[in-house]
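Q: How would the structure tokens look for this protein?
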Amino acid sequence: MVKNRPQKKSYVLVYIILILAVILILNLLLAVVPEGDVFVDDETERDTSSFELLDEKIVVQMSLPAVDEEGNGVSTVLTVEAMPGTGRTLTDIDNLLFWADTQHSIRIAKNVAGDFTNVDLDKVDLIYSIEANASVIGGPSAGAALAIATISAVDKRELKKDVMITGSINHDGTIGPVNGILEKAKASHEAGANTLLVPLLHSRDVVYEDREHCEEFGMTEVCSTETYPRKVDVSEEAGVEIVEVGSVEEAMGYFF
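A: Here is the predicted structure in token form.
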């Protein structure tokens, strides 16, 4: 029995090495082959809107281009929920400061949506919310998007997933001017949009660049900062197609 012990020990050692090798191979395979869709193609089109039917409730989400308090382009999400009701218009209480500046645009957008659909809005409850605060986006610049999203929700029409819009809204459905077009276009591109709808005459923008200018006065050099205007083609600068629209009716042709 004593003579066989070294042989048994060698078998146990071989088994342990084999088990460790199998575990190592399995770990390598798990690291190489991801679970689910892990690899993301940078050129894959991302969705900027969604449409969901939950029983009798319609939930529409669309991305909005905006400018933050530091002047940077950002995108945020507008959600409109429509359900049978008594014509109530509700807003997200968490964004009370935002909605104090936006409720006028919501009222106009709701009226415009009623004019462009055959839906009796006195029998529909609408809930609006935006993932932003007052420092990110102002009510007027979201007006056109509010109208389009409301039309989508009450008329049960799904939005195209690669279109975004910026612009204020007037009572007759025309779209008014807004600021920060170039920044919003860049944010739209980053959000995955192929097309950004803008008010008329907004496909070109003017940006201002600071340059230092120095002059010599005797033995002294005096420098100052001067601001120079530069005209830009928004589409070329931001990498997204810019389409000018004058009304919600025109914009509907791109969203539906």
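Residues 82 and 126 are 5 Å apart (CA to CA).

Residues 30-45 have pLDDT under 50 and may be disordered.

Upvote if useful.
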